[in-house]
Amino acid sequence: MDPLPTPQTQPGRDGLAALLAKPSAAIVGLDFDGTLAPIVADPEQARAHPEAVPALAALAPKVASVAVITGRPAGVAVRYGGFAGVLGLEHLTVLGHYGAERWDAVTGAVTAPPPHPGVAAARAELPGVLDRAGAWHGTWIEEKGRAVAVHTRRADDPQAAFEALRGPLADLATRHGLIVEPGRMVLELRPPGMDKGVALADHVRATGAEAVLYAGDDLGDLPAFAAVDELRADGVPGLLVCSGSTEVTELAERADVVVDGPGGVVQLLRALAAQLD
Asked: How far is CA 183 from CA 58, 206, 263, in A?
């Protein structure tokens, strides 16, 4: 049996204790890329850790809800995660595009509002922006439907390309009513108003959860960490988990528990499920 880690903070210890004491009123929130799925050079090749779905299927029936909260389209996360039609995942929800899209395991349906027109307009300008910034070679544009992302991981100098594009992409986003979300060698242009913190807080309120765990790995997960802090202040215990990496340190500095990437997240999920048997 995998041992449960001991949170390094008192609020984290309180959050874990509340989850263990009443799992039927707890939510487990999880990022996808870097948390359930290893980071890869080509985002289209990302897949959940091979033990992620069995771990989730063991845990999900014991808690109020498992919510995968991701910047990816909900349907893509479901496909890459292998979540559809899995026995035990009836309590799973995927909140895609930072909560703008919702996939429910019970119905298998995705619900979403109309897309923001600025995304298509910005996408049309992207090749010229990359060319003028001198950062075209090795960069890669990912179509995300309700957002568009520029990856620099495959560039000759990924960090230099990332920094060279921050200003031009911020200007492009502003012209089209979008915002830029930086991540691990990726800059995403998306509509304002939704982030993982908003999505998580809305899900907690909708389910009436009395405890929450959130695990993430990247800068886009900081709003979810902030939402857990706010929930704690309102009397809802919470546990913050960082899927650790050497590329982003901000989450590790704020987390109650740091685990070793998606493999460590899987171990944590298995340990929670075993503890609740």
From this structure: 30, 28, 20
